[in-house]
Design a protein that fits this description.
The longest helix is centred in the N-terminal third of the chain and has 25 residues. By secondary structure, the chain is of the alpha+beta class. It is built from six helices and 18 strands. It has a 16-stranded antiparallel β-barrel. A two-stranded antiparallel ribbon has the order 10-11. It folds into two domains: about 80 residues; about 270 residues, Porin (Beta Barrel).
Length: about 425
């Protein structure tokens, strides 16, 4: 059954361009409309004094609301961050990813099936001039994707002080640790369907709990804080009560971005993976140490080509829900290199080369992957993705008599 849906879906995607609005034209139209609304508000305010009648105040409020809506639509089209929520008003958004996936990988991975990869709701509110919060829920969690799970729970304080805003922030709660660039990237913005193998293995669910301080100063961003040593999806933590079998860790990151299309970052993480007991066996405590280097270079070939790279070196054990006394820590390393080429204003092609060695001191522990993805924006908030990836995982040969496998995916994702 692998690939039987591909011709029909690709045909649908490729023949729908006549019905898709020109993104650049829509941005220009909205900017012009925003200028008109701004002039109308100015003209109304210039009529001697600010309006005092109920009818004039109502008209002014309607103009302001219309301008806010235009600005929000522009932010979405231009790929900017969503506007900060108004004080005392909850703003909600969401992301849905429905897909067909197929793989010849032996084991407990679902293959040849339709499924929800994500169905997420997010709520933002500014409940005081310098305090805001975000809470998000995954509605398609669990083995059969019918359970509700908490994803983000962030309380943010603008600590800039005085008249300065948006320069210093303190975050507390549950969120992605400041490691590398990939763990924090939005699922909608990522070029490849899933994160690299080494990130998905060592930081499952990409969420931990802690406190973080971040400072933005021109082209520099500095971050640091204290966190739980394990993510909420780590197999050695997922089925335990919060704090049980966990330790604290520290993380710090620095990023320099001379332009919107170019950046370089370095980050580090240090903590301990606690002793893990399952049944009558226990895995020993080991140190978790990671150093990440990442870079982005864009604007190449007339702004059509972008490269993103990330490399990791560290010490840990591969997390497992099965405890083994001999399952100690090892030096490990991983890397990911992604190239993205814009075929048109609606179409992109991404290629990723990745690797992960879970034990540099032994053989038959390396994983290598090569994959490509075709992405088409059906609207600014609806995207179709087709990807094909091939892997060579030397560690699987002893367990499944299989080292090579591939994975095909067709995904429709909607941001609302």
């Amino acid at each position: 059954m692998r690939g039987c849906f591909l011709p029909a879906i690709l045909s649908l995607a490729l023949t729908s361009s006549a019905q898709i609005p020109d993104r650049a034209t829509e941005i220009a139209r909205l900017k012009k409309e925003a200028q008109v609304k701004t002039r109308q508000i100015g003209d109304l305010a210039k009529k001697g004094e600010l309006p005092t009648s109920d009818e004039a105040i109502r008209l002014l409020q309607q103009m302001v609301d219309a301008l806010k809506e235009i600005r929000e639509r522009l932010r979405r089209l231009e790929g900017e961050a969503p506007a900060a929520p108004q004080e005392g008003r909850i703003r909600w958004s969401g992301l849905g990813q429905f897909q067909y996936s197929d793989t010849d990988r032996k084991g407990n991975v679902p293959f040849d099936a339709f499924q929800f990869r994500r169905l997420r709701l997010m709520f933002d509110e500014a409940f005081a001039p310098r305090f805001s919060a975000r809470v998000s829920f995954e509605l398609a969690s669990g083995a059969n994707q019918t359970n509700l799970a908490l994803r983000d729970a962030i309380f943010a304080w603008d600590a800039s002080g005085g008249s300065k805003l948006g320069r210093d922030f303190v975050w507390a709660g549950q969120f992605a640790p400041p490691i590398g660039y990939e763990l924090e990237r939005s699922e909608f913005d990522r070029e490849m369907p899933e994160r690299s193998q080494f990130n998905g293995t060592l930081f499952a669910a990409e969420r931990t709990r802690g406190v973080e301080y971040r400072r933005t100063d021109g082209r520099w961003t500095l971050r640091g804080g204290g966190f739980d040593a394990l993510t909420i999806g780590d197999p050695e933590q997922a089925n335990l009560s919060s704090g049980t079998g966990d330790r604290l860790a520290v993380a710090a990151a620095a990023r320099y971005a001379p332009s919107k299309d170019t950046s370089v970052g370095v980050s580090g993480f240090a903590g301990d993976r606690a002793t893990y007991t399952s049944g009558s066996s226990s895995s020993p405590e080991v140190g978790r140490r990671f150093l990440y280097l990442d870079a982005k270079v864009g604007g190449l070939l007339n702004n059509r080509l972008t490269f993103l790279g990330e490399a990791m070196a560290g010490h840990d054990r591969v997390p497992s829900a099965i405890a083994t006394p001999t399952l100690g820590g090892h030096d490990l390393a991983g890397y990911s290199l992604v190239g993205v080429f814009g075929l048109s204003r609606l179409d992109r092609l991404a290629v990723r080369w990745e690797g992960f060695d879970s034990n540099l001191d032994a053989g038959n522990s390396g994983l290598h992957g090569l994959g490509f993805a075709y992405l088409r924006d059906l609207t600014p908030n609806v995207r179709f993705t087709f990807s094909e990836e091939a892997f060579v995982d030397e560690s699987r040969h002893a367990l499944f008599s299989q080292a090579r496998y591939s994975q095909t995916l067709l995904r429709l994702q909607v941001r609302f």
